[in-house]
Amino acid sequence: MTHQNLLDIAQEYGSPVYVYDAAKIESQYQRLTDAFKGVDHLRVNYAVKALSNLAVLQFIHDLGAGLDTVSIQEVRLGIAAGVDPSQIMFTPNGVSLDELEAVAKMGVQINIDNLSILEQFGTRHPKTPVCVRINPHVMAGGNTNISVGHIDSKFGISIHQIPHLLRIVENTGMHINGIHMHTGSDILDIDVFLHAAEILFDTAKNFKNLDFLDFGSGFKVPYKPGDIETHIEELGSKLSERFNDFQKSYGKELTLVFEPGKFLVSEAGKFLVSVNVIKQTTSTVFAQVDSGFNHLIRPMFYGSRHEIKNISNPEGRERFYSVVGYICETDTFATNRRIAEIAEGDILAFSNAGAYCFSMASNYNSRYRPAEVLFIDGEAQLIRERETFDDLLKHQIPLKKTVKA
């Protein structure tokens, strides 16, 4: 997408607005599948939580991907997008047995990450195939909030509890058809990932009727020019070779599964905002925009960086700005960032706005959530309307009038 494409979209649909580039999503999908072309059976399950718009799910599914879901609502969204239940993985954390059973009835592959629910489910449904999520006790990820495989994580069944897991499987007679792990997001060290993979392989040896091994995802994408990222091609080469060796020793062909979310959609997303006010203080120049952490919480939540460009004046002289929102709390997108000179009314474009941006948006301060647009085949297609005041009132119930005595 060019700057002019983005400016045209802001003009037509207003700001703030999320824009996703279908071509970038497709190229990332192709890059991942090419990296693992040495594996005979590869399945990519897109992590719905990253960006759950129905049109995006349809597009990614058309590329050949299944879905990875974490709630029954995401499962239903996937089915509404035309994905067959057999191509959906359900990987929740801490959900009720009722929700797990409801999803299993839909024909979705379930993934259980705690011994209590595993025993209850196996006792009641021993013939239903179940994947088990292990915790490899490997610290990986760019922030403690997105590192999920370490020893104190709430996710997964500890590798030290494998004897308990095997006892449950033996006592219930349940069918374990997959083993899963996820160490965290923003993985840089391939050797750490490969170390965790060896733990998964060792665990898999305990189960004789597996169909697949699920290695999660968490691949890091660049957030600025020259930024470091997961070397997916190197990982693909090394892990494919090791996976093929394991298949031979296991004595059965298996499917290699990944669950990319951010990797597929992060770089495809732009978030467009309009500058309301340029405010000079004694030490700072603020660019105050028509959005806030109600629409893009990641910088405030875990310090994520989003490149910001002034697409209304891309060749302007660079100055230092702190870009802030309109929420009545500390609401900072960037501090003392070099950006082409900004005037009130200019359109700023935030990069890496495809993953965990709209999906984490809220109506805080009673603001409307933005529209979403998919740029596909050279055209902008509206895929979610901007909310209105009626949407804020939709599920609220006014107090019934009372007659004063």
Molecular structure report:
Strands 1, 11, 12, 13, 14, 15, 16, 17 and 18 form a nine-stranded mixed sheet that branches. The model is unreliable at 140-150 (pLDDT under 50). The chain folds into two domains: 22-265, Alanine racemase (TIM Barrel, Alpha-Beta Barrel), CATH 3.20.20; 269-385, Lyase, Ornithine Decarboxylase, Chain A, domain 1, CATH 2.40.37.10. The radius of gyration is 23 Å and the shape is globular. It has helices at residues 3-13, 22-35, 54-63, 72-80, 97-105, 115-124, 162-172, 190-204, 232-250, 262-265, 298-302, 389-393; strands spanning 17-21, 42-47, 66-69, 88-90, 109-112, 130-135, 157-158, 176-180, 212-214, 255-258, 269-280, 285-289, 308-310, 318-324, 332-340, 347-350, 371-376, 379-384. With 405 residues, it is an alpha/beta fold. Helix content is 30%, strand content 23%. Pyridoxal 5'-phosphate binds at residues 218, 356. The active site is at residue 328.
